[in-house]
Amino acid sequence: MPSVRVPATSANLGPGFDALGLALGLHDELDAEVLPGTLEVHVTGEGAEDVPRDSRHLVVRALAAAFSAAGAELPGLRLTCRNRIPHGRGLGSSAAAVVAGVLLGRELLAELGHGPLDDAAALELTTALEGHPDNVAPCLLGGFTIAWTDERARAVRLDPHPAVRAVAYVPEQPVSTEHARSLLPAVVPHADAAYNAGRAALLVEALTRSPHLLLAATEDRLHQAYREPAMPASAALVAALRSSGAAAVVSGAGPTVLALHVDGDPEPGDAAGFRRMPLDLVAAGAQVG
Ligand SMILES: Nc1ncnc2c1ncn2[C@@H]1O[C@H](COP(=O)(O)OP(=O)(O)OP(=O)(O)O)[C@@H](O)[C@H]1O
Ligand SMILES: N[C@@H](CCO)C(=O)O
């Protein structure tokens, strides 16, 4: 019975909209087994009260997409999900679900004698399901990733500097990525695009070699301010943490706030209305058992 362990991820990291991502030490664990003629979905933990238990379940949809990509029909299944990544908070829950589904699908396809789905195809398929590559890349590869798309999805993986630490501040209420993306303008000023290009490049240096540059490198003008009306408390927390010296950003499409800091500097403290979660940066991406 194949199983998979998939990490939470934080995308954008300030200036790297739809491109940069980090794998975090908070994991969903799933397993699947072929059970002819039925579909059973068992869910515990995060989202258990909300997610459907049929073919609309995101992991089942990703499994079906993997089978379809291989030209095979999805067999009857029992899927078990033990969820720890909060849903709709900006910590990559949907990317973790599609990565889990595609990797479980890959294992089941191999068990059933179908051809292999290689790593490039897994990145391509998960990106297509998620809509953008910046969460699925670190979920698959671990570490710190730079993702882009040309005729297909692509990513490179880097090791974050070992002194970088992360604290997530998770609010009670979710904001869907779909809604947060609907707030973005179709066109941005050239000066803002240039500003973000410089900061995103600097962030690669800051996250891998020069963490003292993290505060300057995590400035953004392309998405966070536009999303503020949907998450005013998160925007206020980003501003407060940054003024105290922590490199705080909206995590993914929000509303979680991610504060990066350097080991040895004072840790960012509690914030009213948010669940504070110190999280390791993890080297490994999804692991199949
Ligand atoms: N483990 C899961 N199982 C089933 N459905 C899931 C799972 N995780 C996420 N989803 C679906 O995806 C939705 C959340 O996706 P959304 O893209 O809005 O947020 P997110 O992925 O948590 O945040 P972000 O993309 O900003 O990091 C949930 O409401 C649910 O419908
Ligand atoms: N880059 C994406 C990440 C969330 O899925 C966004 O900010 O909308």
UniProtKB/TrEMBL annotation:
Functional pathway: Amino-acid biosynthesis; L-threonine biosynthesis; L-threonine from L-aspartate: step 4/5
Positions of the GHMP kinase N-terminal domain: 58-143
GO molecular function per UniProt: ATP binding; homoserine kinase activity
Entry superkingdom: Bacteria
The protein's enzyme class: transferase
GO (cellular component) term, any one: cytoplasm
Binding site for ATP: 86-96
Ribonucleoprotein recorded as keyword: no
InterPro entries assigned: GHMP_kinase_C_dom, GHMP_kinase_C_sf, GHMP_kinase_N_dom, GHMP_knse_ATP-bd_CS, Homoserine_kinase, Ribosomal_Su5_D2-typ_SF, Ribsml_uS5_D2-typ_fold_subgr
Chief localisation class: cytoplasm
Residue ranges constituting the GHMP kinase C-terminal domain according to the UniProt record: 204-261
GO biological process annotation, one example: threonine biosynthetic process
Pfam families per UniProt: GHMP_kinases_C, GHMP_kinases_N
The enzyme's E.C. designation: 2.7.1.39
Reaction(s) the record says it catalyses: L-homoserine + ATP = O-phospho-L-homoserine + ADP + H(+)
This protein's UniProt keywords: Amino-acid biosynthesis, ATP-binding, Cytoplasm, Kinase, Nucleotide-binding, Threonine biosynthesis, Transferase
Subcellular location per the Swiss-Prot or TrEMBL entry: Cytoplasm
Family: Belongs to the GHMP kinase family. Homoserine kinase subfamily.
Function: Catalyzes the ATP-dependent phosphorylation of L-homoserine to L-homoserine phosphate.
Official protein name in the record: Homoserine kinase
Organism annotation: Motilibacter rhizosphaerae
Annotated gene: thrB
